[in-house]
Amino acid sequence: MRKKIISTKFYILIALSASVLILYSCKDEPPKTHPTQLGQGKGLFVSNEGTFGMGNASLTYINLENDSLNTDVDLFKTSNNRSLGDVFQSMSLINKYAWLVVNNSGKIEVINPETSKSVATIKNLKSPRYALEVQPGKVYVSDLYSNSISIVDANSFTKTREIKCKGWTEEMILFQNKVWVTNHNSDYLYIINPSTDIITDSIALAYGGSSLVSDKDGKIWVLCSGDLIKKRTGGLFCINPTTLKIEKQWQFAKDDYNPVKLKQNPANDSLYFINQGIFGFPKTAANLPVNPIISQPSGTSFYGLTIQLSTGNLFVSDAIDFVSRGKVSVYSPKGIFIKSYKTGVVPGEFLWW
User: Fold this and answer.
1) How far apart are CA 40 and CA 48, in angstroms?
2) Which residue from 50, 149, 150, 306 has the least number of CB within 10 angstroms?
3) Which residues contact 348 (CB under 8 A, 6 or more apart)?
4) Threshold 0.85, pTM exceeds
């Protein structure tokens, strides 16, 4: 049988070609680091939910000062020698600590944001969503299933009591000494007095309250996402917090129009949300835009949004297939792509640090 003979020069050529390809593919990748001390004002944390039921939630940090990132390691697991848990929902900075709300694990992990070292674990929570400090030492935690908002002592890191609120409570803000609470299973925005922990009022809006912001003009904007399964439509509303009157509203015409993640630009004159793409529009607009400023490419799933105060750049998380590692892409205020970073599985929320 005749043997095939391949010259040594051929092997050398293959090796050189592979080296060139490796160098080329890596030249635009920022260096991967695992910093032991994270200085404030240099970047942002990304909460990676992980795949539901898999317990693979993780914490990523992107250093924008030197364009380095840690993606090969899970900051929490590496710093504490244990897994974060199942479904890392959101992150809040409270009393110099980062509170990591882990939804399906029914807990909040409190860490030192500079070292990612654990400070405490807050338990006895059913399905927490977001944490908000409403008074010094007092934190409200919204919940998916408990029909209540938990009150947590930020000094002892213990749950002290609950505020009964039927349905899925979601995002909250503290504004004019009142806590404004969205409820995803109702048509109402709820108002709580943080001194008495009593619901003092509610405002009828649309179904599926999900996110809200307060602006420089003293108004509150609330996004109600609707519900496709329940055939309920949502809307976007501008509320006067003094009179509790709706001053402007866009009622969504169809139940399959389900925007999420309402944000505003640094100038406070434009709003943004995700709806299979990123939509941006001035608050003075008469109508909602028809076309997104950033289209969602095929094979991607825009999932989270934050806006950098210093530049107005949009940071958009992409859950891709909700199983593989996701990414965060950066766009200019006009929607021009700048760069992207790999993250953990299902990147969702952000915390600037």
Assistant:
1) 20
2) 306
3) 47, 48, 49, 88, 89, 90, 303, 304, 317, 319
4) yes
